[in-house]
Design a protein that fits this description.
Length: 287
C-alpha cells in the first residue's frame, strides 16, 4: 500500500512540474507553426496526429491554472535533479526553479531538488558531468533541455535507462525519431507560435516595409524555431528586406561585435534577436 501511495504521489507531481515555466502555457497557443521539420512534430501537427491528446491537454491546462491540490500522503521526499543552461543574463531558468518550488510547497509536496547550471549552447562536457553527479543521488525526475545535437544524445541515454523520468523544459515539439520512446513530458512555451505573434507586430509597426537583420543563438532548436520562423514570416512580404544573419551564440559580447559590424555597413530599421543576452549585446552596440 505504501509503495502504491508513493507511485500516486509521483504521478501527481508530474502535473505540478508544468509550473516550471508560468510565462505561457502551450495549451493557450493556437497558431499553426510555419516551421516544417523532418525532426520534430510542431505543436499543431502533434495534436492532429494524436487527437486523443486534446482532452488530456485541456484537463492539464485547467489543473495547472487552478490552486494546487495538496497530497494526502507521501512516503518520502521526491528527488528532483534540474540541469539548466542558467549562466546567462536572463534569469528565466533560475526563476523557473523558484516558481516550481513555490508550486511544490503550495501542494504540500515533500521534495529534494539539486540544481545544476551551465552556459547555454556550451559546456556540454560540464552538463555530462552534472548528469552523472545527479544520477548518483537516484532522482525520481531529471529536468533538462534540448537545443543542440549533443543534448539529444545525452537525453537518449537517459530515456533508455527508464529511470529517472525525463522532463524536457523549453521545448514543445516532440522528436519524431523517438517515436514511442518519448520523455515523460515536454514543457514550456511554443517558440514558433510566440515568434509568429512577434512577427505580426513587426509587420504592423513597420507597415510591411523595413530593412532588418537576424541574430541567432547557436545552431540548434531554439535558433531554428525563433529565427527561422521569423525569417519565413517576413519573406512573404517583398518590402521586408533581410540584410544579414549572424550566429552569435547566446553571447552578449559576440552580439555586440556583430551589431557594430553590420551597423557600420548597413542602414537597418531593426535587428531581430533570438534571446535576451543577444538583445542586450545589440543594445550595448547601439549605445
Amino acid at each position: 500500500m505504501q509503495r502504491r501511495n508513493h507511485r500516486s504521489a509521483l504521478a501527481t507531481l508530474g502535473c505540478f512540474l508544468s509550473t516550471i515555466m508560468m510565462l505561457a502555457v502551450v495549451s493557450t497557443v493556437q497558431a499553426e507553426s510555419d516551421i516544417v521539420s523532418d525532426h520534430y512534430w510542431t505543436y499543431q501537427q502533434f495534436k492532429k496526429r494524436y487527437p486523443e491528446k486534446q482532452r488530456n491537454e485541456e484537463a492539464f491546462a485547467r489543473q495547472i491554472r487552478g490552486p494546487a491540490t495538496p497530497l494526502s500522503r507521501q512516503e518520502r521526499p521526491v528527488r528532483i535533479a534540474i540541469i539548466y543552461p542558467g549562466v546567462q543574463a536572463s534569469d528565466y531558468w533560475r526563476r523557473s526553479v523558484s516558481s516550481f518550488e513555490a508550486r511544490l510547497r503550495e501542494a504540500g509536496v515533500k521534495y529534494e531538488i539539486r540544481s545544476y547550471f551551465s552556459k547555454p549552447g556550451k559546456d556540454i562536457r560540464l552538463q555530462e558531468n552534472q548528469i552523472v553527479n545527479a544520477l548518483q543521488h537516484d532522482p525520481d525526475y531529471l529536468v533538462y533541455t534540448l537545443d543542440v545535437l549533443k543534448h539529444r544524445l545525452l537525453i537518449e541515454r537517459l530515456i533508455a535507462r527508464k529511470r529517472p523520468k525525463v522532463i524536457l523544459q523549453n521545448i514543445t515539439t516532440p522528436l519524431k525519431a523517438w517515436e514511442d520512446r518519448q520523455p515523460f513530458m515536454y514543457i514550456g512555451f511554443d517558440h514558433a507560435s510566440g515568434t509568429q505573434i512577434l512577427a505580426r507586430q513587426y509587420l504592423d509597426s513597420f507597415q510591411r516595409k523595413a530593412r532588418y537583420a537576424i541574430f541567432y543563438g547557436p545552431r540548434g532548436y531554439v535558433s531554428q524555431m525563433r529565427g527561422n520562423t521569423f525569417k519565413n514570416q517576413m519573406s512573404e512580404y517583398p518590402g521586408m528586406i533581410l540584410h544579414g544573419e549572424f550566429y552569435t551564440g547566446f553571447d552578449r559580447e559576440k552580439a555586440r561585435k556583430a551589431a557594430l559590424h553590420i551597423l557600420s555597413q548597413k542602414q537597418l530599421d531593426f535587428i531581430y534577436a533570438c534571446s535576451t543576452d543577444i538583445a542586450l549585446g545589440i543594445l550595448d552596440a547601439l549605445e
